[in-house]
Amino acid sequence: MKTPRNLRKKNEAFHADAIVGNGQKAATFWERIHEMHSELINEYNEEKKGAKGFKELPLRPVGAVECRWAHILKVLNKFSGCYSNVERRMKSGKTREDVLTEAKELYKTSSGSCFNLDHCWGILKDTPKWQATQQENDGRGKKAIQAQSNSQSTVAAPSSDMPSSTPAASSPTVVIDADEDDPENSRSVIGNVRLEGQKAAKRKRAEDNAIEKIILMQRDLVQISRERLSSMQASMRSSADEAVMSKDLSMLDEDSRTYYQKKKRAIIAREIQEEKEMEEKARKERELKEKKEKEEKQRKEKEEKQAKEKAITAHNETEEEEDEDNAEDEAEDEAEPDVEDEAEATDDDVDEDQ
């Protein structure tokens, strides 16, 4: 189970949620992360339950998940600095794989450990929020270096009327605020991926909801029109059938009598067929309902069985721990008399010597 990868995906997804934006509290944010992380753990445990030698993964508390992400973020930030340094020194002919390899070597040299979060780095490095953060950090670093350089140049420069030949300081890196409503200013600093503003995202969501409501209303209107038309057709057919069935055939000629008799037989046959179809439909609905009830019952029984198995497993583990503690206590108790016996034997030897 690649917990860092899942944790990174969920954290990045929640950060990129423009509808919620930065209006959520930290506790709420990590509760959402923890909820999704627990679901992934449960799904993985359920999927691998029957595998040979599989050991069920424990669920982390909220604080542990947050601490794990803090560790991941610390490692990735340090590796990002190494990667940027190598990238700036990249010579022609070198590939991105070469840069990555050298960055790992630099990280190992500076931190004393190997970089093992490639799966996290592979996705986070391309996300707009991560890119904007790294650009902001680079911009701050450049500003500090430039300020220090300007300060040193000012102190070392001689007093003269000659124009200064010091080149102008480069413009600081501009970091776009992703919460701005202007769509033109909501782009990533590095990539081509657009960071959608919170207001724009909410407006888009409202427009989508309005369109969806209109579509649903139109569907309802079409359904109502169809039902009304079907009801009118059924009423007209019922009136026509009633007129045929109540027709007095004694005053008609042979051909007309034969015609109306065929009509009556057709009406009776159709009504019998409709009754059969209604009975068949009711039977299928009843079977479908019974099937769903049976599946729901089996699902509940399965959940209860799994809960009992987990409870039994936890109980057995508790008993094993208690047995181990008792065994340790017994071993300690057995060891104590031996010490006392040795002490008594020593005292007896001393008395005999005297």
TrEMBL record:
Residue intervals of the No apical meristem-associated C-terminal domain: 115-267
Ranges for region Disordered: 133-187, 272-354
Compositionally skewed regions (Low complexity) per UniProt: 156-172
Listed Basic and acidic residues bias regions: 272-312
Matches recorded under InterPro entries: NAM-associated_C (IPR029466)
Bias kind Polar residues: ranges: 146-155
Pfam families: NAM-associated
Sequence ranges of Acidic residues compositional bias: 318-354
Designated name of the protein: No apical meristem-associated C-terminal domain-containing protein
Species assigned in the record: Puccinia graminis f. sp. tritici (strain CRL 75-36-700-3 / race SCCL)
